[in-house]
Amino acid sequence: MNQRTQFHGLGHLLVLIVAFLLYWGIAEYVLGGTYENPFAYFDKLAAAFLDGELHIQSPVKADLTLYGRHWYVPFPPLPALLLVPYMWWTGAQTADTVLFSLILSAVNVMLVFGMLSAAVRHRLTQIGRSDVIWLTVLFGLGSVHLYMAMQGSVWFLAQIATFTFATLSVWLAISRIHPFWVGLALAVAMLGRPHIALLGPLLLGIWWTARDPSAGYADLVKHAVWIIIPLVLAMGSLLWYNDARFEDPFDFGYTSQNVDSFLEDDLETFGQFNLYFVPRNAKALLWATPELNAEGELEGFWPNRQGMSIFLTTPAFLFLLWQGRRDWLYAGALLSLALILVPLLTYYNTGWWQFGYRFSLDFMMILMLLLATTAGAKLSWLFKSLVVLSILVNFWGMVWFAVITFVLT
Questions:
Q1: What letter does residue 194 receive in the DSSP assignment?
Q2: Is 114's pLDDT higher than 70?
Q3: Does pTM surpass 0.90?
Q4: Quick one: which of 46, 108, 255, 375 has the fewest CB in 10 Å?
Q5: 211-241: buried (b, 16+ CB within 10 Å) or exposed (e) per residue?
Q6: 45 CB contacts (<8 Å, ≥6 apart)?
Q7: How deeply is 334 buried, as exposed, middle or buried, from its count of CB atoms within 10 A (0-12, 13-18, 19+)?
Q8: What is the spatial distance between Cα 277 and Cα 406, in angstroms, rounded to a whole number?
Q9: Sequence-distant (≥ 6) Cβ neighbours of residue 347 within 8 angstroms
């Protein structure tokens, strides 16, 4: 290992440690510490796996699926699989899932740092290493990832874990690692949220942008096949998992899950995905604003629980509206973003009880890479000012979360 590799390794380790300490400190001193979230489910599912079962025992039934007198977690099992070693080692039936979320979230910050640093090394961006730090801080403290890191519930853990392996796949692609390993990382991410496979165009755009001049379309097809092989295996695993649970490989259990009455009518009337939901989801993503609460103990302007515009929760993303570039990386990024938005915008649920638009984490690695590759030679002071504003907005969200969770309940 040469000195440069050691330097990069130490830098990544330092980012990981600092991110974890910051997240742990926020959880400890703002939210009162970590805890076992009763809506985590994945720790119970991990314990069930070790007992040879696919169903769980839980005192709460929200967003679980009843089938054959057993309750199942309809969400794909990635977080549970990650928890299996811990559950096996300790013999516990439950875990501190908020602490688990903080650890994964710190890894996510390190992965974003690694992805952007790799983009600098391989000259996919003109920004310097100090700018990479600014963008990493933006992600870690100035986006919905901060709020989501503190949850530990089934909905947020699934997205946090999916982001981990999806961003790893992008990092590997930028680092020019063999495409099988790029595809394998993305395949693991699919075990958390299957539609994340739609990152494929971005991965191919990265390769084609940085390809050897002698490479042609036949090489692109070969590269794509290597990526697709693990994805097919992952999809096959999910279909087997569904069949083992519900005797139907194409039934994830979503349409029959025990959802809140607020969502039940729409799910029964329009199904899980429908164009009817596009205006509602587009509002939550793009232009939803804080709401005025004039009654009760929580008076004033507070986040809209149905979602809030990503341009309000992370104002630095406004830069993406007028910046661009002409290459295959940018084209692949936009195509992946458009494809991922299709299931998100047609979904029957905006994310519901949340700060910001939590589903934006599914494409956050795309936005971070676009910021880095379209910023020019150096991040402007205006952009850095918006990073600071983004951090303040997200700490406002943490205050709101602390108030409604620990004061009003």
A1: G
A2: yes
A3: yes
A4: 255
A5: eeeeeeeeeeeebbebbbebbeebbeebeeb
A6: 56, 73, 77, 80
A7: middle
A8: 32
A9: 272, 273, 277, 281, 359
Residue 286's contacts (CB-CB under 8 Å, 6 or more residues apart) are 309, 310, 311
pLDDT in tens, 225-264: 999 999 999 999 999 999 999 999 999 999 889 888 888 8
| Spatial distance between the Cα atoms of 109 and 168, rounded to a whole number of angstroms | 11
Amino acid at site 371: L
Name the amino acid, one letter, at 406. Answer: F
Query: What would you report as the CA-atom Rg of the chain, rounded to the nearest whole angstrom?
Result: 21
CB under 8 Å to 377, separation ≥6 — which residues?
126, 127
- Measured in degrees and rounded to the nearest 5, phi and psi for residue 72 equal -120, 150
Residue-by-residue DSSP string for 342-392: HHHHTBS---SS-SS-GGGGGGHHHHHHHHHHHS-SS--HHHHHHHHHHHH
Express each pLDDT in 276-327 by its tens digit: 999 999 999 999 998 866 555 566 678 888 899 999 999 999 999 988 788 8
Decide: 178 and 391 in contact? Cβ < 8 Å: no
Task: Tell me the two tokens of residue 336.
Answer: 């992946």
Q: How far is CA 223 from the centre of its chain?
A: 25
- Residue 127 phi, psi (nearest 5): -70, 160
Looking at residue 56, its amino acid is I
SS3 of residue 31 by DSSP: coil
